[in-house]
Design brief:
The protein is 37% helix and 17% strand. Helix 2 packs antiparallel against helix 3 and helix 7 crosses helix 8.
């Protein structure tokens, strides 16, 4: 249920990597504590109630481990087989009951931004993560540091995906453009807008959808007009040195260019 894909990987003086991470919804709060990451995630407010309900029925989050209760933050030894069977039966019964109430809330006309909240314990979500610095995250979240089992697995798969990826070598002035693998990074032109629009569509879990340039350009311009800056953080221009720009090093963040930053 935890999946990691490298969307874009670039290196100049430093390396910048964009990942699409599918994980249990509850892990997002833990991921968000790492402020060197630029992030956008699928939103319970944006996804239609029926689609959320179908996902929870067809592919719900199921705990990967069942530790026993004990004092402190970490769980204890694994439950016995009999206990585990009881727990899983209760887990799915709770899911089914939540789905029934979700249907009732939707039928009553409640907006999906509230309706979908009752299903979040069983929801998977997709988060777009871009960073130039990963060491603190891995130091805190890899096995052996007391993180929850699901977070440990997520960290392992993120590390392995980065290690297995070969970054694209770029020169200073070239652009890191997620979801635009074939564009000339020295002449990004209109593809900056395409990349931004595709990064924004992760909110709807539609980041891999293809739109016309006009549609992507309109989406980009609307986000600028409304001040929805976070999708622009995943796009960055290579700098000639290991120079900090907001939460990046060696890359000038497109958001900084748009909302008043200076080179």
């Amino acid at each position: 249920m935890i999946d990691v894909k490298v969307i874009a990987d670039s290196i100049c003086k430093t390396r910048i990597t964009t990942l699409a991470v599918t994980m249990p919804k509850f892990l997002v709060a833990q991921l968000n504590t790492h402020r060197v990451f630029s992030r956008n995630s699928a939103s319970s407010r944006a996804i239609p109630a029926l689609r959320v309900r179908q996902q929870v029925m067809e592919m719900p989050y199921v705990p990967s481990m069942l530790p026993s209760a004990q004092k402190g933050m970490a769980g204890g030894a694994p439950l016995s087989q009999g206990q585990a069977e009881e727990v899983m039966a209760a887990w799915f019964a709770a899911r089914d009951d939540a789905v029934r109430h979700h249907e009732m809330l939707e039928a009553s006309g409640l907006a999906k931004e509230l309706c979908n909240r009752v299903l979040e314990p069983w929801m998977l979500t997709t988060v777009l993560v871009t960073s130039t610095e990963w060491s603190n995250f891995f130091n805190q979240r890899l096995p052996g540091h007391g993180a929850q089992a699901e977070m440990e697995l997520l960290a392992v798969r993120m590390r392995d995906s980065i290690d297995a990826s070969s970054p694209r070598r770029l020169l200073a002035g070239h652009w890191h453009l997620p979801f635009c693998p074939t564009v000339d990074p020295a002449n990004p032109g209109q593809m900056v807008k395409v990349s931004a629009a595709r990064c924004a569509r992760v909110s709807y879990r539609r980041h891999e959808d293809v739109r016309t340039f006009a549609e992507d350009a309109n989406r980009h311009d609307e986000m600028v007009r409304l001040g929805h800056w976070s999708p622009f953080e995943h796009i960055a221009e290579a700098m000639p040195g290991d120079i900090p720009c907001r939460n990046f090093r060696g890359w000038y963040q497109y958001r900084a260019l748009l909302d008043g930053g200076k080179r």
